[in-house]
Amino acid sequence: MNIKILVTYKKFVPVILESKTTLKEIVHEIQLRRQIDFHNNIIRFCGIVTENNPKDFFLVMEYADSGTLKNYLKENFKNLTWNDKFDLAFQLVHVVSCLHDEEIVHRNLHSNNILIHQKNIKLANLGLSKRIEEASDPQSIGMIPYVDPKSFTRKRNRDNEIEVYSLNKKSDVYSVGVLLWEISSGRPPFDNEPYDIALAMEIFSGRREIPVSDTPDDYINIYTGCWDIEPDNRQTMRQITSSIKKIEYETIEANDVNCDEMVIDDHENVVVDNDHVEESIEKDVVNEDHNYDEEMAVEEEHEIEVNDDNIKELIELLSSMKIEEEKHKILEYLNEHSII
């Protein structure tokens, strides 16, 4: 049986491969991917390909046909129903919840590094760009509207050294809250303003985006709870996942009632068994499995010259990872198609 795989080739910009620190972050990213490769809402790492020039190498990744979440919402928002939005929201919170179950904190969630393939959410990286950014500039802030406001302040210890706030699971929850609002609105937060220190200070002081008028109250309560200024007041990703799934169930049930054109007498009541709904939700949260298309294309990005020693170290580190079976499969495919 011949299986076609849709992939994209990723080359790194020059600064990425100039230090051992960033190289180790790349390897760390790939190790994390192997840890949670079972999840269909994470872009899969397939392997490494080299060209004739030994200084050129590519990471081979699963391809996403609809680009970033930001662009997907911009181009398709008017055609999305609330069921569609709830589905995107559930996929997002579910995959982040799975990361947290594996003790992985993303730390850099925003709509430009979340991709869409066949209407499915795909996390494009597991915080790699944030770690590399911090390696080169420890005081960098990042995509301000999505970042936990607690990280905007700087404290000094007794030695007058700056103590940087460590982004954590509750920081991911804050970012998810902003993304849930973005899914409901179809646009990035504060999109007509510069993402600068002034905006950061306003957000730290309590400024938030305004809920869209037709948004269900339960959905608003979820994402506004996520972006509470106090991390301890934010729910866990598992709790948020259950809440989103419950909204999905209730919406589906309401739609079923409308579609069946049920006539209910004034004195009759419709009773929803919440225990049954929550039990079903828990099963679905564990067993959720989105189908995806395995058809294939190839896309190339930026070129770069890299250091021979760094490349050698990267390949040695990757080769030491316990992914031999997967590596052989991709190498066989690439050899058969004269890619390497």
TrEMBL record:
Protein kinase domain span: 1-252
Domain of life: Eukaryota
MF terms in GO: ATP binding; protein serine/threonine kinase activity
Transmembrane segments: none
Source organism phylogeny: Eukaryota, Fungi, Fungi incertae sedis, Mucoromycota, Glomeromycotina
UniProt-recorded name of the protein: Protein kinase domain-containing protein
UniProt cross-references to InterPro entries, sorted A to Z: Prot_kinase_dom (IPR000719), Ser-Thr/Tyr_kinase_cat_dom (IPR001245), Ser/Thr_Kinases-Pseudokinases (IPR051681)
Residues spanning the signal sequence: none
